[in-house]
Structure formats: C-alpha cells, structure tokens
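call fold(seq) -> tokens
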Amino acid sequence: QVQLVESGGGLVQAGGSVRLSCAASGRTFNRYAMGWFRQAPGKERESVAAISASDGTTYYSDSVKGRFTISRDNAKNTVYLQMNSLKPEDTAVYYCAATVRPIAALLLNEYDYWGQGTQVTVSS
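ret:
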C-alpha cells in the first residue's frame, strides 16, 4: 500500500553534488524506516543509507560515509539523499525503499516497498 517515487538523478561531474528525493504515499509514512540502495551495471544491489522512523537515527555504508546524508521530512512524506564529493564509482540506479519496521537497517531483505529507481551518472 506504499508507493515510492524517486527523483533528482542525472549526470554530474566527479566531485559534484546531487540531492535525490523520494516521495511516499500513505498516512503512516512516519512509522516506516526508510532506506536508499543502489545498483551499478554488472553489480548486485547494495545498501547506501537508512533512517529510522522512531528517532531519525541514520546509518551509512562505509563507501559513502562522510559524503552522503540521508534525511526525512515526515510532514512532506519525503526522504532525501544528499550526495556530495561524487565519484565515478557512485554511478548507479538509486532506489528508495520502505519497511514497516520502525528501526532502520542496511539489509535489502528487510524492506517491503521499493521505488522505480533513478539513474545517477558521475563522469570523470
């Protein structure tokens, strides 16, 4: 019953910044933990960041820690991923996901709903 729509992807130079948005449907959005994941060509989908519903605690994969920031605005039913200091290896389709669990996790199989993805391409 949750629909997620990502936006904000595109082409960016290495070292640049992009902010992704994920608009969610549903009246219980503030009860869902949210996550961002990505899948590069020829690679498996991997975790990027997650944010809990209860207290807003955030988690990051080691590859993006210090460069990416996940946040949420429950009043707007929106989750954001601010990506700075982008590298060519960040090129991937980025997916927003939601779980009915209130505590976030960097595990793909913990998430129940997925968006369609948005492409981020970082040129060298």
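The mean pLDDT is 95.
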